[in-house]
């Protein structure tokens, strides 16, 4: 059982939370235990109990499941406070211990709650009774009663022609920019709402440069306006003023760090200006709020690749595939990944890993000789730099007798999973099978490499092969790769079966490509056939011996 003073102190803690934390859903849940603690008390003084009721209404009005209950509670509270059922003496006790609003402010809040729930008619009467003309005009506009709104505005202008809010309301109803200009005149160019309205009007007309200047003027009057900074960035972007657009979106995320759209726009602008590190950081922030946007993941993979963060790039590619049902596979990026994977071969010594500002690792395959390693162990052991990683901590996997670093192992694993996902889905065609073959070759799996190359060749075959030159070129390159793989297998096993298969395939390919006999690819097929025949003759001679 808490006495009244303790209950007031607990509710004061709620006010402290409201003033010291962002106005979001988490703030309400931080206050909830304190509200529940006071609400659970059997005895509470009138003012303390009413203030606790207001805080509970603020909490429950933001949830769809409890919004109706919040309206009922607010209606009872307004009737209890405004009905005069409690005497003045009881109201005076602890009146200054809680932050209780006036009756008119309480009724205004009640009407605003009804508007948010679509109860416009009842809210109209309260606003009219309180003479809140801006709110009344807004309700008329919501109901589509523009004529009634105009009559009310003109009536109020007769009583107060120097009120800029009324002129802006008239501009909202008539869509006439002259009224906003008049509002600026009567306010001495100090009314930010009029500038914002002119900026929106100019943007809707396509006058982006003019809209940008109006937004700049509005934000000079009131800079704590996140939506205004975002709108400034959008107008500047349309006006091709990219530096000002970046500045606008940056201010927007400084005021509202959860604005995923602004983070995305910042990243795209940095990407356009070839600032890949800045774009990478901005995309990481944007993806915290828009993880289901495959376009954003695709851009993220591009900048991650450009700055050398290959693992992040592959993870982004996989997210794109998952979100698009394997329809959006960036084969060009995957090809670069396979090339990077093939270039990473560590034979001995240690790997120097440099951490850049974006947090990714850049490997330098600088091998040290045994003598160098011995010197380093004896002379620099005491103060070995943090960016030098011993061989034992780096070499974690071995493919085809060659050791690779942990990051390269991740790269190989992710690349393989993505390629397997693509070939299983049937998307990508021959290009995917070619990359899949290279991946298997890197892993040292000759049989799977040969099978993937064979499927690549079959993917390019078709009835239009003899008439489509571009298709023929791809088919010819794939055929040469397949036959070179056959030669490698025959050289290592001494078998002639692969060489026979290569000869048959090349002869059929040359026969089908007679229409392109003057092309370089056709000559490459002929040269490859000669090489296969020479290898076959050499293998036959070796067998006869």
Q: What layout of secondary structure does this protein have?
A:
Layout: H1 4-20, H2 25-39, H3 46-60, H4 67-82, H5 88-92, H6 103-116, H7 120-130, H8 133-142, H9 146-159, H10 164-174, H11 177-186, H12 192-205, H13 208-221, H14 226-238, H15 242-255, H16 260-272, H17 276-286, H18 294-306, H19 310-323, H20 331-343, E1 351-355, E2 361-364, H21 370-379, E3 388-389, H22 391-394, E4 395-399, E5 402-405, H23 406-425, H24 430-443, H25 446-460, H26 469-493, H27 497-512, H28 520-544
Helix pairs in contact: 1-2, 1-3, 2-3, 3-4, 4-6, 6-7, 7-8, 8-9, 8-10, 9-10, 10-11, 11-12, 12-13, 13-14, 14-15, 15-16, 16-17, 17-18, 18-19, 19-23, 20-23, 20-24, 23-24, 24-25, 25-26, 26-27, 26-28, 27-28
Q: Low-confidence stretches at least 5 residues in length (pLDDT < 50)?
A: 346-396
Q: Given the structure, what is the number of helices?
A: 28
Q: Which structural class fits the helix and strand makeup?
A: mainly alpha
Q: Biggest β-sheet, characterized?
A: 3 strands, antiparallel
Number of strands: 5
Strand content: under 5%
Return the average pLDDT rounded to an integer: 83
Radius of gyration: 36 Å
Distance between the termini: 105 Å
Keywords, please?
545 residues, elongated, 3-stranded antiparallel sheet, mainly alpha, 71% helix, 4% strand
Description:
With 545 residues, the chain is mainly α. The chain is built from 28 helices and five strands. It is elongated, with a radius of gyration of 36 Å.
What's this, in brief?
The chain is mostly helical.
């Amino acid at each position: 059982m808490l006495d009244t003073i303790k209950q007031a102190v607990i509710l004061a803690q709620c006010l402290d939370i409201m003033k010291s934390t962002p106005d979001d859903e988490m703030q309400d849940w931080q206050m909830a235990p304190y509200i529940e603690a006071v609400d659970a008390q059997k005895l509470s003084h009138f003012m303390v109990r009413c203030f606790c009721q207001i805080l509970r209404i603020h909490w429950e009005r933001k949830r769809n499941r409890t919004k109706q209950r919040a309206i009922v509670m607010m209606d009872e509270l307004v009737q209890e406070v405004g009905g005069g059922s409690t005497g003045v003496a009881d109201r005076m006790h602890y009146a200054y211990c809680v932050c209780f609003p006036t009756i008119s402010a309480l009724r205004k809040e009640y009407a605003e709650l009804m508007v948010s729930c679509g109860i416009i008619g009842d809210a109209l009467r309260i606003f009219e009774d309180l003479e809140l003309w801006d709110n009344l005009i807004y309700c008329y506009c919501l109901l589509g009663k523009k004529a009634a709104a105009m009559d009310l505005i003109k009536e109020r202008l007769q009583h107060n022609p120097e009120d800029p809010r009324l002129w802006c309301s008239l501009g909202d109803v008539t869509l006439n920019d002259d009224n906003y200009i008049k509002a600026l005149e009567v306010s001495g160019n100090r009314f930010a709402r009029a500038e914002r309205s002119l900026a929106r009007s100019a943007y809707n007309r396509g006058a982006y440069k003019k809209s940008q200047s109006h937004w700049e003027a509005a934000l000079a009057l009131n800079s704590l306006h996140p939506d205004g900074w975002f709108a400034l960035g959008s107008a500047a972007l349309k006006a091709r003023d990219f530096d000002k657009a970046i500045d606008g979106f940056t201010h927007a995320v400084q005021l509202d760090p959860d604005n995923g759209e602004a983070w995305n726009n910042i990243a795209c602008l940095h990407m356009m200006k070839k600032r890949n590190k800045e774009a990478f950081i901005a995309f990481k922030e944007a993806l915290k709020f828009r993880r289901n946007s495959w376009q954003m993941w695709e851009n993220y993979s591009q900048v991650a690749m450009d700055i050398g963060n290959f693992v992040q790039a592959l993870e982004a590619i996989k997210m794109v595939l998952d979100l698009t049902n394997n329809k959006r596979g960036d084969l060009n990026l995957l090809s670069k990944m396979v090339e990077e994977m093939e270039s990473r071969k560590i034979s001995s010594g240690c790997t120097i890993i440099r951490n850049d500002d974006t947090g990714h690792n850049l490997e330098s395959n600088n091998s040290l000789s045994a003598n160098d390693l011995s010197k380093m162990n004896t002379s620099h052991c005491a103060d070995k730099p943090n960016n030098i990683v011993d061989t034992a901590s780096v070499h974690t996997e071995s493919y085809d007798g060659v050791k690779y670093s942990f990051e390269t192992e991740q790269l190989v694993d992710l690349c393989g999973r993505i390629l397997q996902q693509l070939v299983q889905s049937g998307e990508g065609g021959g290009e995917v099978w070619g990359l899949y073959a290279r991946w298997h070759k890197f892993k040292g799996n000759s049989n799977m490499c040969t099978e993937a190359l064979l499927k690549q060749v079959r993917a390019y075959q078709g009835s239009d092969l003899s008439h489509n030159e571009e298709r023929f070129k791809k088919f010819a390159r794939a055929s040469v790769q397949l036959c070179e793989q056959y030669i490698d297998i025959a050289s290592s096993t001494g078998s002639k079966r692969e060489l026979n298969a290569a000869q048959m395939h090349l002869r059929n390919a040359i026969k089908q490509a007679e229409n392109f006999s003057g092309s370089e690819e056709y000559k490459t097929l002929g040269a490859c056939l000669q090489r296969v025949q020479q290898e076959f003759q050499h293998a036959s001679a070796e067998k006869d011996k």
